[in-house]
Amino acid sequence: MSSTTTAPPAAAPSKEDRRGLADLWLRSPTLGPLIALAIAVVIFSLTSSTFMNIDNMSLVLQQTIVIATLALGQTLVILTAGIDLANAAIMVLGSLLFAKLAAQGQPPLLALVAGFAVCTVIGAVSGALVTRLKLPPFIVTLGLLTVVTALGRLYSDGNSWPVTSDLLGYLGKGSYLFGQFYVTPGMFVMLAMFGIVWYALSHTAWGKHVYAVGNDEEAARLTGIHVRQTLFSVYVVAGLIYAVAAWQALGRIPNADPNAFQTGNLDSITAVVIGGTSLFGGRGGVWGTLVGALIVAVLRSGLTQAGIDSLYQDVATGLLVIAAVAFDQWARRRAL
Amino acid sequence: MSTQQHEQDRVEPGAAEPVMAATGLVKRYGKVTALRGADFELLPGEIMAVVGDNGAGKSTLIKALSGAIVPDEGEIRLDGSPVRFHSPLDARKAGIETVYQTLAVAPAMDISSNLFLGREQRKPGVRGSVFRMLDRKAMRAAAQDQLDALGVATVQNIDQIVETLSGGQRQAVAVSRAAMFGTKLVIMDEPTAALGVKESGQVLDLIRRIRDRGLPVILISHNMPHVFEVADRIHVHRLGRRAALVQPGDYTMSEVVSLMTGALSLDSDGALVDPSGHRAEVDEQGHAVAVDG
Amino acid sequence: MSSTLRTVCASAAIVTIAATACTSTKSTDSSGSGATGSAAGGTVKVGLVTKTDTNPYFVKLRDSAKAEAQKQNAELIALAGKFDGDNEGQVAAIENLVQQGVKGILITPSNSTGILGALKKAKDAGIVVIALDTETDPKDAVDATYATNNVTAGELQGKYVKATLGVTAPKIIMMDGTAGGTVDEMRHRGFLQGIGVAEGSPQIVGKANTNGDQNKAQAAMENLLQRSTDVNAVYTINEPAARGAYAAISAKNLQSKITMASIDGGCQGVQDVKDGKYLATVMQFPKKMAEQGVDAVVKFAKDGSKPSGFQDTGAQVISDKPVAGLDIKDTAWGLQNCWG
């Protein structure tokens, strides 16, 4: 039903016009998702009296934070024409390290540093496997998904670990702005992360190389780009971002659970794809991903408040993914 | 660089020091010998076409010159001094740019980004050194200058995405990039292979303009009319070595084809001879026939 | 492009096969150690197949079964699916156990219907099969079932919430598990029976599938509360769901208005009750299931008598706020008897 929100405008009279639209889509891939988000927000505002108010906007934002941060790392990997199935598992392991180390009496700061280090190292391991052994990222991260999930359960003894330290729960501890809007440090951290990665992708040579490698790896190699170094760095940075996501997760629920976020990897891919980043690499960007994550959260929030069963919410999200990819393909065929 | 200057620079073969010279190149792949003592030379300001039948070792020669392979024997000199390339990057650092048949462009990126791909410029000062910020404005301006200088008029907008360009325009982008960064010479691999008549003409013009600006060009092509249209000299490659070095005005296309296939060869006077050593020429049907003399 | 897709699909297929292979390899590994440990006609071999080997609940079940087997001088071979719902993994485990000549198989079926064929083969081979924790559908696919009556457990949760609310009419939010799950449906039904509200009644303000995941429960509860905070009762499928729901409720400062309870009896769940995050939880007893299961198999090996029917291993309300008419144990007792 809500998939219609992203469908291309029905009127497409001449070939020229359609080519123009497709060209616009290629140039600004964030535009489509943004329009879809706007349409969803308008519809839910009209159908539900409780949707469009300040505290719900805050909630939607809070619900977006963890998946959006995961999806930020995922965006980098997908831009290089890879995929990261292990991201949520890495994040969960990070959160378990934070919580258990602190619970065992280590200083929270040390727990934080250790968690960040481990997540980054696991990112480096995926990067090394992809670049050195030349294995497909799908296989590497699928294997790591299993390994890291098991490591998390071993380390946690299968139990969840409550967080008592203020530092570890810091990102979720906010205050009310304008009376109603609950603002958490986590929101700023998320936006800052997106800002930094956007800058790196669009304003540095590294970013150009990430796009070029994802667009055409052989061409990138021939133009003198250090393809392996670029790919490796992407997985390392992604690992670091997953550690931030782990910290964000403890801000949401002060409890690290080895069984949490089992669909986090797919949820993050969903956000990336709805956000207009191509699974074939080299096209897209981080703001689209943020919008994609927001669209999923808005759909859940709006449909829940409209009293629609959660299984239909899954149906809507799934249709949106298909619509987004279909539109991306259509636009590319048109433009060429 | 003006055309007049080019005329001054242009020298008769043998009179000037070659920009690039290779002697006795040998390359073996297991039992197969792809290069058997091949020679090559490129003079300043010339377009040297390299022609040869499939399997003649033409691409192995080009790979050796562009650094993609390391020859087993022989020597390559650049401006008189010996060089040894271990990778295309080495060759590039020495000022040799290659335009690959695949073009090596990132289709989803704009023209300006593609021209500077792998060689991006950063902003001056802290923004560049600490924040690694790209100088997009400067790169765009330089890209526009380059296209203007080479007379690439068909591309209007430097921000256009490469995949929305025609084949000829993409070729122009790849050639412009090579001309922009090549300081010694440019190697072009079949630049007109995938193009129509009109676009081929534009690319050939582009190749001439690059030469006219003082940058010698090595042109690998299967297309004899194109070779005769732009080449100053033709290197005929056969059985892993240089079979002949000719000027287009002195021989017909059919004769060059005969040299390629081995139907004819050149004797020491530059005359065409058949395998038995008799003077020969090529008739209207393209067959080599003996001439009584 | 399509070739990339094809590669991905092919890779997915390979990996699926590899994953299945892993499960069976794992089973064989355990069986290997089992075979070496048993003398030909000596100890009784008991097979145990749990849904997963990571959930503390199943860990408790396995450890209790091991201890009981040791006491009975029997040998326990414990296998597990890879995840909740891993029918293939469970089927492979059953087949392996049959191969090894176990006397009985204790199983917590992932999907009650998915493994019927394998169970029948085991029974045909003269093995006694007992379901633990979860019933099969149909029930007679196994010889006997030792489990919590999940309808009763749900009912106890409902009764407790009803007693706490007193005369106030309930306005309920239901944090369900997975759509279509047997246990999920039973607890849900039991709760509504206990609180005296019919399915589909307007008194159910909202419900959501949480998959028992704390984060999904949190987001679902936030969204439902956004719709209306006029809620006074919350049903939760298990304790992680309750934990997530609590995060949403406390963010809105509604703890004092809302009566929430849960089911499971995990140690952290009991601790949460003690900390006042929700009022009560209904404890299950995996230890009892495991012990009775092992005992039944050993007895069968001795005298050939098969157990039958459904054996309720009990459900106990744990709370520090007793209500009239219900048998309630406090959290101190709960912490001594909890699992995980």
TrEMBL record, chain A:
<feature type="transmembrane region" description="Helical">
    <location>
        <begin position="138"/>
        <end position="156"/>
    </location>
</feature>
<feature type="transmembrane region" description="Helical">
    <location>
        <begin position="270"/>
        <end position="299"/>
    </location>
</feature>
<keyword id="KW-0997">Cell inner membrane</keyword>
<keyword id="KW-1003">Cell membrane</keyword>
<feature type="transmembrane region" description="Helical">
    <location>
        <begin position="59"/>
        <end position="78"/>
    </location>
</feature>
<feature type="transmembrane region" description="Helical">
    <location>
        <begin position="24"/>
        <end position="47"/>
    </location>
</feature>
<feature type="transmembrane region" description="Helical">
    <location>
        <begin position="176"/>
        <end position="201"/>
    </location>
</feature>
<protein>
    <submittedName>
        <fullName>Sugar ABC transporter permease</fullName>
    </submittedName>
</protein>
<keyword id="KW-0812">Transmembrane</keyword>
<dbReference type="Pfam" id="PF02653">
    <property type="entry name" value="BPD_transp_2"/>
</dbReference>
<keyword id="KW-0472">Membrane</keyword>
<dbReference type="InterPro" id="IPR001851">
    <property type="entry name" value="ABC_transp_permease"/>
</dbReference>
<keyword id="KW-1133">Transmembrane helix</keyword>
<feature type="transmembrane region" description="Helical">
    <location>
        <begin position="231"/>
        <end position="250"/>
    </location>
</feature>
<keyword id="KW-0813">Transport</keyword>
UniProtKB/TrEMBL annotation, chain B:
<dbReference type="InterPro" id="IPR027417">
    <property type="entry name" value="P-loop_NTPase"/>
</dbReference>
<dbReference type="Pfam" id="PF00005">
    <property type="entry name" value="ABC_tran"/>
</dbReference>
<dbReference type="InterPro" id="IPR017871">
    <property type="entry name" value="ABC_transporter-like_CS"/>
</dbReference>
<keyword id="KW-0067">ATP-binding</keyword>
<dbReference type="InterPro" id="IPR003593">
    <property type="entry name" value="AAA+_ATPase"/>
</dbReference>
<feature type="domain" description="ABC transporter">
    <location>
        <begin position="20"/>
        <end position="264"/>
    </location>
</feature>
<dbReference type="InterPro" id="IPR003439">
    <property type="entry name" value="ABC_transporter-like_ATP-bd"/>
</dbReference>
<keyword id="KW-0547">Nucleotide-binding</keyword>
<dbReference type="InterPro" id="IPR050107">
    <property type="entry name" value="ABC_carbohydrate_import_ATPase"/>
</dbReference>
<dbReference type="GO" id="GO:0005524">
    <property type="term" value="F:ATP binding"/>
</dbReference>
<protein>
    <submittedName>
        <fullName>Sugar ABC transporter ATP-binding protein</fullName>
    </submittedName>
</protein>
Automatic annotation (TrEMBL), chain C:
<keyword id="KW-0732">Signal</keyword>
<dbReference type="Pfam" id="PF13407">
    <property type="entry name" value="Peripla_BP_4"/>
</dbReference>
<feature type="signal peptide">
    <location>
        <begin position="1"/>
        <end position="21"/>
    </location>
</feature>
<protein>
    <submittedName>
        <fullName>Sugar ABC transporter substrate-binding protein</fullName>
    </submittedName>
</protein>
<dbReference type="InterPro" id="IPR028082">
    <property type="entry name" value="Peripla_BP_I"/>
</dbReference>
<comment type="similarity">
    <text>Belongs to the bacterial solute-binding protein 2 family.</text>
</comment>
<feature type="domain" description="Periplasmic binding protein">
    <location>
        <begin position="46"/>
        <end position="302"/>
    </location>
</feature>
<dbReference type="InterPro" id="IPR025997">
    <property type="entry name" value="SBP_2_dom"/>
</dbReference>
